[in-house]
Specification:
Low-confidence stretches: 140-155, 159-164
Number of domains: 1
Distance between the termini: 49 Å
Shape: globular
Strand order of the largest sheet: 1-9-10
Bound molecules: zinc ion
Number of helices: 2
Helix content: 10-25%
Oligomer: single chain
Largest sheet: 3 strands, antiparallel
């Protein structure tokens, strides 16, 4: 387990925005409803305001490290209630105490979170097994849909909402 200190639940905001007003997805931690991993998202879709900023009043679509897709609201973002240190640059990182994987906001390195179990390999193998698409009758192609979604990079915004 990574060394960490607990801090009050809402001492830091549950998310941060980038200088351009977009959501900094590396600050958003949620628990995947399918595999239970607590981590940042591998992809995101969110609404923006007329001014082009992240709109916290609308649902956000996220994907866990095993590429399960789910929709949440800002209320579902986990409180960042623990502080640990980046294994590469030593910067403090504020994350949920329950996080399996975290991101350093200074050097953007993905690394084990404070709650990643000692038996992490089996934990993530279990998540990977869950992530395999179910064998469904071919009335749709979940793989193709998944691939298309994976191409979205963090910070992608929905288009068409900007009134200007
Ligand atoms: Zn998942
Ligand atoms: Zn770092």
């Amino acid at each position: 387990m990574t060394t960490m200190d607990l801090i009050p639940a809402d001492a830091v905001p549950r998310f941060q925005t980038r200088p351009d007003g977009g959501l900094d997805i590396d600050t958003v931690y949620t628990r995947c409803p399918q595999c239970g991993i607590v981590a940042t998202s591998t992809g995101v879709d969110y609404a923006i305001t007329a001014g082009g900023d992240f709109d916290p009043g609308e649902p956000v679509e996220l994907a866990c490290p095993a590429f399960h897709h789910y929709r949440v609201t800002v209320a579902d973002f986990l409180p960042r209630d623990a502080s640990c240190f980046c294994v590469r640059c030593g910067s403090p990182i504020v994350v949920p105490a329950t996080a399996d994987q975290v991101v350093c906001l200074t050097c953007r390195l993905y690394q084990d979170g404070p709650a990643r179990p000692t038996d992490a390999v089996s934990h993530f193998e279990a998540a990977d097994a869950l992530s395999r698409p179910p064998k469904l009758p071919s009335n749709g192609d979940p793989l193709e849909d998944d691939q298309a979604r994976r191409t979205r990079s963090a910070g992608t915004r929905q288009e068409g909402l900007d009134a200007s």
